[in-house]
Specification:
The protein is mainly α. It is elongated, with a radius of gyration of 15 Å. The chain has one domain: Substrate Binding Domain Of Dnak, Chain:A, Domain 2 (Up-down Bundle), CATH 1.20.1270. Helices cover 77% and strands 0% of the residues.
């Protein structure tokens, strides 16, 4: 069981969304952010780093958006649909873009892992958005 799920299970306030769905999204966002940062570092070590510039920029944007969205989603008592939903939509969008770019470089194992993390996060955020409707 993840820490996100453990925290939700011990949360002193009612959570108005399925705890499993919320925890899965938080875990996917934090994993995605971590994968992005590590992939960025790996990209910077590639022989032709200029070919990786778009990937690096998307990875940095994705890490920032995922980190922010995970932070907001981790505070469910103060849920505000006008804030949370656009953040999750931004997370879906950047994970799609970043995942597409990383798939272009899938011959590099670190980019393949990065693409997988993006796809998992994109799906988890979509599921959380559906649960919030």
């Amino acid at each position: 069981m993840s820490y996100a799920r453990q925290m939700l299970d011990t949360y002193p306030h009612p959570v108005n969304v399925d705890a499993s769905t919320l925890a899965a999204a938080i875990d996917a966002m934090t994993d995605c952010a971590q994968a992005r940062l590590t992939d960025t570092d790996a990209d910077l070590g590639e022989q032709n780093v200029t070919e990786m510039i778009r990937c690096i920029r998307l990875c940095l944007d994705c890490a920032d958006i995922c980190t922010t969205a995970a932070g907001v989603a981790s505070r469910p008592a103060g849920y505000d649909a006008d804030v949370t939903k656009p953040l999750l939509q931004a997370c879906v969008a950047i994970c799609k873009s970043c995942g597409d770019e990383c798939e272009r470089h899938a011959h590099m194992p670190h980019c393949q892992v990065c693409a997988e993390a993006c796809r998992r996060c994109e799906q988890a955020c979509r599921e959380l958005l559906d649960a919030l409707k």
